[in-house]
Amino acid sequence: MSDAADPAAEGPGPRGRPRQPRTDEVIREAALALLREQGPGAVNVAAVAARTGVARTTIYRRYRDRAELLAAVLHPVTAAGAPPEPGSVRDHLAWVLRRTGEVLASGVGPGGVAAVLTGSDPEFATALRASLESGLAPVRELVEADIAAGDLRADLDPDLLLDLVLGAYLAGSLRRGAPDAQWVDRTAAQLAALVTA
Length: 197
What we know:
The chain is mostly helical and 197 residues long. The chain contains 8 helices and no strands.
């Protein structure tokens, strides 16, 4: 489909038609659906254009390359802020475990996890790691504040704690399938017992 026939296409520079916010949303939704359904290897500009009917040129005006497209798709998946306050250490750990499940189920999917673990798509792995770092920053800050307040052990490494929580969820998924609410509660309680001051 050419830009002239694309109702969501934009013209060049400020003299062209204004950007259509819905087009951005359609592009991101299609890329995320491809990621969940077929894995990260299926996410590219040609596939998104074919799925949406949005011209490739329109997509390239928004995202310079596949790496930028992946970053735009992953950021909203991994960004959730920090656990709600007030809450106990156990409540916060349970929140992170639930968010991990949401990111895996509604975001990167098993194909995305496999691609990172196997190293089969370095561009995707780089985008996911950067997005996770950004998305986990508020949680890391909360952990650091809880350490400073004496709620968590003084010798606790915030990054290692996050690795333990994410790793526990992945291990639970491998052993049992998607962990249920009871598993989340039990795991949060066990982890809280280990890290609480």
